[in-house]
């Protein structure tokens, strides 16, 4: 089955202590869509300007990503520019030019409205609501978010939590949302806000799933070299949803392996700037890292 | 088989934002010995002053810890006092009174010199050397350390690394020792310094083993409440060595489960001040948490 992915489609200019890369393909939906595409067909909903490079449309298409929901509007594509510190754990935003993204309203082509799997990648919660308002009884809806929405759209986000099956956020966002330092206490509180499944991302320390079957402690793939972590979280949740959409059996039973596959795609994402490394990944390459993780966690 | 454990035996006065606990039983060897005692007989080598409370000697004995190597000297027991910040991730030392520990020289009773399993818990590397000089061909030697020795006794520590089978340190110490930010690059460099097995501790994020069979990503047990993390690292390596000493089969094959058992004992340690919680643990309680971790990591 296919996955519907709605989020930002952007151009990212990324500085690290070692290199500078202007106008890479970026945005939460781009990373998530490419990650999901290794496992299932993807329907992408987003917006770009008329300056959006043709090569990036071709890149989406090469990954079998359906673009019927990608709006191309007169104006500039959302452009984000950021700089990472030496250890790549902290980044600061240098520039945010919203362009056509400022007035983005995700409109779903008729065929997308009955998608069973929906990933509301990181965009404003109001837009995430707008997507759900157009859907017909999806089977499994997961929402991602970021600290910005906790700061400026908390009410919308809290309402959204009652409408999703799964919610993904990182540890500092979980602390901010619940005012709880302890990640396991935070998980309990977030469940009370709605979602059956809550996943807290811990960066290079992996992620934690909390659901009806208890916790799953999902490892990050060991990397000796991290080039650019931008989009790793989006790749993780994209890979997860792509895997879920084609796996046989119940979501409950598949979610752990889905997270492992998401974690592996995220590891590739970190090994290159933007989507440079992710787009070169093969199913065999993913399978090998999943096997490695099985070996590295067995006891 | 028994484990020889050499390290500090101290009185810890620990402040957290919620409570203050004076003169608890502490020190690297105390935590490690109690942790190991759940799995194997322990021979303890350390020093205390004549002010050392009798109840703590009884505590050791209750755990079957042999005290033939515990020196009782005229003077004061090593007293450490520290304060934790709200999130318990950072602590600062308020006071260090070395007392009889200042002139401590670990002398091994004859019967201890042929111990197969030796844990050089955190003390000065020169003293760790002095212990090894008294040993007859131990089967498996593991050393722990702390940032202080990297700062003031680096040469001794580097020489020690050529004499041990396993070396345990935390991530910031590994960075300091190797000047490498990346933990997997640091692991490779530490192997080159001598040890066949290197374990990097990541606090609440677990630990990583690197050895001939590759990596093992060892989880920390999920805790909703951390009362006092003092001694968790010592409990981890103590539990690990105690488990190894009685497990059948090769060290290589047992090391992963040994780490899991150490991780579980460390989780109990964090749930009370000093050794308050650890000393109440049962084998059944440990077995249950090991089972939980199996369930929480399977995919």
Summarize the structure.
The structure is a homodimer of 299-residue chains. Chain A has helices at residues 28-36, 54-62, 125-134, 147-152, 154-161, 171-178, 183-192, 232-246, 251-270, 283-297, and strands spanning 3-6, 10-15, 20-26, 42-49, 65-73, 79-84, 91-97, 117-120, 140-144, 166-170, 197-201, 207-211, 214-218.
Please tell me about this protein's structure.
Two copies of one chain form a homodimer. The first copy, chain A, is of the alpha/beta class. Chain A has a single domain (3-297), classed as 3-Layer(aba) Sandwich (UDP-N-acetylmuramoyl-L-alanine:D-glutamate ligase). The first copy, chain A, is built from ten helices and 13 strands. In chain A, the strands form two sheets. Chain A has a nine-stranded mixed sheet with strand order 5-4-1-8-9-10-11-12-13, with helices on both faces. In chain A, strands 3-2-6-7 form a four-stranded mixed sheet. In chain A, helix 1 (28-36) runs parallel beside helix 8 (232-246), helix 3 runs parallel beside helix 5 and helix 6 crosses helix 7 (183-192). The interface between A and B is medium-sized, with 33 and 33 residues.
């Amino acid at each position: 089955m296919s996955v519907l992915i709605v989020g930002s489609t952007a151009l990212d200019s990324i500085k690290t202590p070692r290199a500078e890369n202007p106008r890479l393909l970026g945005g939460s939906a781009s990373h998530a869509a490419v990650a999901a595409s290794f496992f299932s067909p993807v329907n992408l909903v987003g917006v770009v300007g008329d300056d959006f490079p043709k090569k990036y449309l071709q890149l989406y298409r090469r990954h079998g990503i359906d673009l019927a929901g990608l709006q191309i509007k007169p104006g500039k594509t959302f452009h984000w520019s950021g700089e990472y510190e030496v250890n790549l754990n902290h980044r600061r935003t240098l520039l945010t030019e919203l362009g056509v993204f400022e007035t983005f309203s995700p409109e779903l082509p008729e065929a997308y409205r009955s998608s069973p799997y929906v990933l509301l990648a990181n965009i404003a919660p109001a837009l995430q609501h707008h997507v759900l308002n157009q859907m017909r009884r999806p089977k499994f809806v997961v929402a991602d978010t970021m600290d910005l929405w906790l700061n400026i759209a908390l009410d919308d986000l809290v309402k959204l939590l009652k409408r999703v099956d799964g919610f993904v956020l990182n540890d500092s966002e979980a602390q901010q949302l619940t005012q709880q330092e302890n990640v396991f206490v935070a998980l309990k509180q977030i469940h009370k806000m709605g979602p059956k499944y809550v996943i807290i991302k811990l960066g290079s320390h992996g992620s934690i799933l909390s659901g009806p079957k208890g916790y799953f402690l999902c490892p990050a793939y060991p990397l000796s070299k991290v080039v650019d972590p931008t989009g790793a979280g989006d790749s993780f949740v994209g890979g997860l949803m792509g895997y879920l959409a084609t796996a046989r059996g119940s979501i409950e039973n598949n979610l752990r392996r889905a997270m492992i596959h998401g974690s592996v795609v995220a590891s590739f994402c970190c090994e290159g700037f933007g989507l440079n490394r992710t787009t070169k990944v093969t199913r065999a390459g993913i399978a090998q890292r999943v096997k490695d993780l099985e070996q590295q966690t067995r006891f």
